């Protein structure tokens, strides 16, 4: 295999069939048995300063579900698959741990942090407040959201590329933050987007919600373009509430499936 450029690292995770089944909602809770890291990594070009690249690869994998909540990961396996030394891997894992995306595993290694419904609810409360404020301010300023952002979002929503869907969703909301004219909104939101990415990945796994998400985005953009701040804020509140509801429902299904399996085992 030929060498790959560093910026291709972000695409270096490929889901195996086992990983796909894993993410179909079987280890979103910490009490579910730990699985060994299933993702396969492509080698990186030989260098020693790969901390940012390794961090981005792992962040994308956690966000998209290639590394599902509860999955065990080790620096040795990551270093081997990426063909880098352990040093940048160790530093990248420390950053992920600081961000709360991985936690210490029993015995050895780390676990991808399980999703906690209560914590997610708090996260969406913060997101909802910021997004609603940004939408209202953008409308009051007479801003307009680039229609190509929505067109691209609709296009990728028809694919199976979860990372592309997350990126498109983020692009839409960041466009509103910018249009609000208040730079502190984007700065504050940025603190939480690293976690929102993985939560969004869980929501976007449900294909039935993808079209409605972009229908809601289009309605918000239309209200902003019309200068109706109140309507833009209301639609944004509804959009956030729907996203939170969809995720809670998915987590509920996971818990029910887990209980059913435990009942069958006994």
UniProtKB/TrEMBL annotation:
GO molecular function: DNA binding; DNA-binding transcription factor activity
Keyword match DNA-binding: yes
Limits of the HTH gntR-type domain: 48-115
InterPro entries, per database record: GntR_C, TF_FadR/GntR_C, Tscrpt_reg_HTH_GntR, WH-like_DNA-bd_sf, WH_DNA-bd_sf
Keywords: DNA-binding, Transcription, Transcription regulation
SUPFAM superfamilies: GntR ligand-binding domain-like (SSF48008), Winged helix' DNA-binding domain (SSF46785)
Entry annotated with the keyword Plastid: no
Gene3D superfamilies, alphabetized: GntR ligand-binding domain-like, Winged helix-like DNA-binding domain superfamily/Winged helix DNA-binding domain
Superkingdom per UniProt: Bacteria
UniProt name for this protein: GntR family transcriptional regulator
Native species: Caballeronia temeraria
Classification of source organism: Bacteria, Pseudomonadati, Pseudomonadota, Betaproteobacteria, Burkholderiales
């Amino acid at each position: 295999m030929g060498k790959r450029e560093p910026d291709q690292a972000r695409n270096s995770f490929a889901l195996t069939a086992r990983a796909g089944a894993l993410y179909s909602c079987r280890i979103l809770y910490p009490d579910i048995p730990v699985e060994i890291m299933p993702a396969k990594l492509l080698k990186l070009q030989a260098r020693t300063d790969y901390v940012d690249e390794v961090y981005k690869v792992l962040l994308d994998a956690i966000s998209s579900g290639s590394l599902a909540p509860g999955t065990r990961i080790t620096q040795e396996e990551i270093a081997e698959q990426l063909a880098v030394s352990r040093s940048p891997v160790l530093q990248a894992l420390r950053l992920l741990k600081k961000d709360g995306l991985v936690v210490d595993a029993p015995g050895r290694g780390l676990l991808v942090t399980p999703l906690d419904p209560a914590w997610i609810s708090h996260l969406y409360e913060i997101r909802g407040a910021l997004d609603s404020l940004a939408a209202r301010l953008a409308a009051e300023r007479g801003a307009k959201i680039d229609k190509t952002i929505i067109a691209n979002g609709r296009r990728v929503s028809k694919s199976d590329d979860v990372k592309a869907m997350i990126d498109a969703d983020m692009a839409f909301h960041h466009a509103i933050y910018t249009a609000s004219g208040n730079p502190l909104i984007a700065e504050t939101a940025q603190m939480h987007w690293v976690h929102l990415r993985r939560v969004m990945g869980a929501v976007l796994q449900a294909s039935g919600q993808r079209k409605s998400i972009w229908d809601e985005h289009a309605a918000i953009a239309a209200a902003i373009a019309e200068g109706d701040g109140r309507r833009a804020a209301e639609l944004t509140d509804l959009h956030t509430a729907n996203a939170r509801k969809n995720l809670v429902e998915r987590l509920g299904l996971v818990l029910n499936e887990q209980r059913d399996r435990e009942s069958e085992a006994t």
